[in-house]
């Protein structure tokens, strides 16, 4: 779907119309392929090497998150496949997705259906604070959580996040690790100094989990985190786990907006 939307947008922006062709075929004995081709403007040569990078976007601010192609890349590779791109001779873009052929076992006799419990499914709804300095990413996270039925406050500044915590009661926090002024680690340390129980109900998102400084912070404290780019289902499951932990500790339902409480001293 992301590949189709990208092709559509390229055609609409370039001349307002065009054609997209989807073709599937068996590319080898062990692989099946899907080709998506359009007759649009293609991709400038100088940015081809970056199109699968997380948060890289050629769209105007507020239009794209830069997550589309990186998520496609992640999904394809998680299934043991490959994705490639090339500009077509004469104009247009061509994406090729190759996936391994999977042997399907013989169908077993139908059994009586039993209720299935997915990780985090059925969790209570909560009041969540999102602290993320990138507006498009903050909006994406907030939109996903709101669609799940949660109340969400999203702020672009970590100090504003601390101010919100002094006025409202939240069930969980989602916080970027790398931010200007006050980063995620300093934000967390402020919660610890204040004795806030939310220090144990925080989910970090970061694009540099391999950096030594990041590992030295996250690993000893066993702090939950998601690597950018993350799948939306991963976000939902991680948030549900935090809310389940909160419900187990408080024994009550979610806080709802607005829910003012006495101000706390959160040291910065």
Q: What does this entry look like structurally?
A:
This protein folds into 2 domains: 99 residues, Histidine kinase-like ATPase, C-terminal domain (Heat Shock Protein 90); 124 residues, Rossmann fold (3-Layer(aba) Sandwich), CATH 3.40.50. The protein contains 7 helices and 9 strands. The strands form 2 sheets. It has a 5-stranded parallel β-sheet with strand order 6-5-7-8-9, with helices on both faces. The chain has a 4-stranded antiparallel β-sheet with strand order 1-2-4-3. Strand 8, helix 6 and strand 9 form a beta-alpha-beta unit. The two termini are 44 Å apart.
Characteristics of this structure?
268 residues; alpha/beta; Heat Shock Protein 90; Rossmann fold; four-stranded antiparallel beta sheet; 7 helices; disordered C terminus
CATH superfamily of the largest domain: Response regulator
Kindly state the percentage of residues in helix: 25-40%
The largest pleated sheet is described as:
5 strands, parallel
CATH architectural group of the largest domain: 3-Layer(aba) Sandwich
Number of strands: 9
Structure class: alpha/beta
The whole-number mean of residue pLDDT values reads 81
β-sheet strand percentage: 15-25%
Instruction: Specify the number of helices.
Output: 7
Distance between the termini: 44 Å
Q: What can be said about this structure in brief?
A:
This protein is α/β, with parallel strands linked by helices and 268 residues long. It has helices spanning 2-14, 68-78, 135-147, 158-167, 184-194, 212-221, 232-250; strands at 20-26, 31-38, 82-87, 93-100, 127-131, 151-155, 172-176, 202-206, 225-227. The protein folds into two domains: 2-100, 2-Layer Sandwich (Heat Shock Protein 90); 127-250, Response regulator (Rossmann fold, 3-Layer(aba) Sandwich), CATH 3.40.50.2300.
């Amino acid at each position: 779907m992301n590949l189709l939307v990208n092709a559509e947008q390229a055609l609409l922006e370039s001349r307002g119309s065009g054609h997209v062709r989807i073709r599937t075929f068996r590319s080898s004995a062990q692989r099946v392929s899907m080709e998506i081709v359009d007759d649009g403007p293609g991709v400038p040569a100088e940015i081809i090497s970056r199109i699968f990078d997380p948060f890289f976007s050629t769209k105007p601010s507020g239009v794209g998150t830069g997550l589309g192609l990186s998520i496609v890349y992640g999904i394809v590779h998680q299934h043991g496949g490959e994705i490639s791109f090339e500009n077509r001779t004469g104009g247009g873009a061509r994406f090729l997705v190759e996936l391994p052929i999977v042997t399907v076992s013989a169908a077993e006799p139908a059994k009586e259906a039993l209720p299935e419990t997915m990780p985090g499914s059925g969790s209570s709804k909560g009041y969540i604070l999102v602290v993320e300095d990138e507006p498009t990413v903050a909006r994406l996270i907030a939109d996903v959580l709101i669609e799940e039925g949660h109340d969400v406050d999203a702020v672009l500044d970590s100090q504003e996040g601390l101010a919100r915590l002094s006025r409202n009661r939240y069930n969980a926090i989602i916080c970027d690790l790398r931010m200007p002024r006050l980063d995620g680690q300093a934000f967390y340390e402020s919660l610890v100094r204040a004795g806030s129980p939310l220090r144990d109900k925080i989910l970090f998102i970061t694009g540099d989990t391999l950096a030594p400084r990041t590992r030295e912070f996250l690993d000893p404290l066993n702090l939950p985190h998601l690597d950018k780019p993350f799948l939306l289902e991963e976000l939902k499951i991680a948030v549900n786990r935090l809310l389940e932990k909160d419900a187990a500790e408080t024994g009550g339902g979610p806080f709802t907006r607005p829910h003012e409480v006495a101000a706390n001293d959160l040291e910065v």
